[in-house]
Design brief:
With about 500 residues, the protein is an alpha/beta fold. It has 17 helices and 15 strands. The strands form four sheets. It has an eight-stranded parallel beta barrel, surrounded by six helices. A three-stranded mixed beta sheet has the order 7-9-10. A two-stranded antiparallel ribbon has the order 1-15. A hairpin with a 4-residue loop joins strand 13 and strand 14 (about 465-470). Helix 7 (about 145-160) packs parallel to helix 9, helix 8 runs antiparallel to helix 9 and helix 16 (about 410-430) runs parallel beside helix 17. The chain is globular. It starts with 8 loop residues before the first strand and ends in a 13-residue tail after the last strand. The structure holds ligand GBH. Ligand GBH binds near residues 23, 233, 344 and 372. Ligand GBH binds near residues 23, 26 and 173. Belongs to the glycosyl hydrolase 1 family. Keywords: Glycosidase, Hydrolase. InterPro entries: GH (IPR017853), GH_1_N_CS (IPR033132), Glyco_hydro_1 (IPR001360).
Length: about 500
Amino acid sequence: AEPAARTGFLAFPESFVFGVATSAYQIEGAAAEGRGPSIWDTFSTAGHAKDGATGEVACDHYHLFKEDIRLMSSLKVKAYRFSISWSRLLPNGDAAEPPSEEGLRFYSELLDALLQAGIEPWVTLYHWDLPEALHAKGGWLSKEMIVKAFGDYARICFHHFGDRVKYWITLNEPWCSAVLGYNTGDHAPGYTEETDTACYVAGHHLLLAHAEAAQIYREEFAQQGGEVGISLNADWRQADSEREEDLEAARRAMEFSLGWFAEPIYLGDYPKCMRESCGDRLPSFSASEKKKLFQSSDFFGLNSYSGNMAKAPPRPFEGTGYWEDIGVEWWHTDHQWARTDMDWPVVPWSLREILLYVQDRYKPMGGIIVTENGCACEPDISAELDERPGALLPRPWDGVRRATSSDFEDPERVRFFRAHLSAVHAAIERKAQVKGYFAWSFLDNFEWAEGYGKRFGIVRVDFQTQERTIKSSGHFLARVFEANGLEAPAKEEQYPGRTF
Ligand code: GBH
C-alpha cells in the first residue's frame, strides 16, 4: 500500500524541553539499603498491590542508574524528571538527625552523571512515598507536624542538590495522595472513606506543605537561581451535551479535580463550588496561608493521561463524601473510544483542551510543563487482557503485530504519543504557553496498585533479569526529541472523535 500522506511537520519552539519521567518507589528498588520504610513499603508488603507486588527491587535503578543514563542519552532526552525518596535521605523522617550519607551519595552521583550526559534534572520531592515514621505521627492528617517535616526535608534537598538542580517539583499529584490515599484506599496509606472529610484534610495539608517548601526555596535559596513548581493531575471533562446542567457538571468535575489544588495557588482560594458542596468539611485557609499559597508555583506542572464526558445526574446524589460532593455522573464514556490497558479512554484532543483551559483560567507564570503523559499498552500481554469480561473493544491496535520476546514493537504507544504530541502542538498554536513535555515513563516499572502487569515504559524491563530493551516508541520519541518535532499523524492514525 501507498504510504499515507502526511499533513506536515509539527515543529516545537526552540527552547521546548523534551524529557522522560519516573519516580523513586517505582524504579529504585534497594528498599532496605540504608532507606527507611515508607507508606508504600507498608502498603505493598501487606499485599495491597496486584499479585503481591512490591517496590523492593523494581527496576533496581539504584544499582543500574549509570546504565540507565546511558540509555537516556541514546534516546536523546534533554531532561529527566525523577523523584527523591524522602526515607532514603531521612530513614526515620526526622530532619533533626543528619541525612543518610548513603542516600545523599546516591542522588549526588545520579545528578553528576546526568549533568555529565547533558541531561537537565527535574526533581520531584514527593512522589507518594511518605516515611512510615511520619505516617505514624499522623502523616498528611497532622497539620503542624507534616508541614514542618516537609519543609525541613525540602531544605535538605535544596541545600545538598540545589547547586545542580534548577527545576524542583514539590508534590506529584496531590489529588492522588488525597483521594486515592484517604478516600478510595487504592493507594497508601489505604484509608477508605471512614469519614467524608479525610481527603479534604489531607489535601489541605498537602497544599500547605507545598507552599512551605516553595517559600523556603524562594527565601533561603534564591541565589541558586532555580524554579519551584508543583505537578497536578487532571483529565479533561467534556460536557456530554450543551444543556446548561451538563456544562455545569463538566465545570464542577474540573474544579473538584484540578481546581481543588490549582485555585488556592492561582486564584487565591478553593473553588466556590467546593465550598458550597462541602461547607466546613473543607478546611479553610487563614489570610496568611492564602498569601503564602498565592502564586507559589513558578510553573504549572500538568500530568494528564485521558479524558471523559461529564453530565448532570438525573437526581442529586444522596449523602456526603468526595464523589457525592461533586455530584457529577462519572465515567459516562463514549464507547467508541479506545482504551489503554489501564482502561483509560484514549482521547488526544482532551490534552489540547485541558492545556487551553489551564492557560485561560490560571495564566500560569512560567508557563505549563506537561510533566507526565503516556499509556499502558503492551501487545504481548493484551491477549490475556482482551479476555477480561466486559472489556471495551475495539482497541486501536487490534490486528497489529504482536511483540515477540526479542522485539518490542509497541505501535499503539507510538500512535498514542504521536496523537498527544500533536495535541500539545495544537495547544501551543492556540497560544497555550506550554514549555515542555515529559513522557511517562522512561522504564516499565512498579505501577502502584497495579503492580508490574501494566507497562508504561518506552524501555522494556525484564523484571527477572533487569534487562532493558528500547521499544519502538522509544525510538520514535528519540527522533521527535532530536528533530524537535514530528510528522503530523496521518488520517487513518487518528482516533475517533474530534480531530485537531
Ligand atoms: C500518574 O498518575 C502517576 O504520577 C505515576 O506515578 C503513575 O505511574 C502514572 O500516572 C500511571 O498511572 O478514566 O479518564 O478518568 C496518574 C493519575 C488518575 C490518571 C486517574 C488517570 C483516570 C483516567 N491518574 N485518571 S479517566
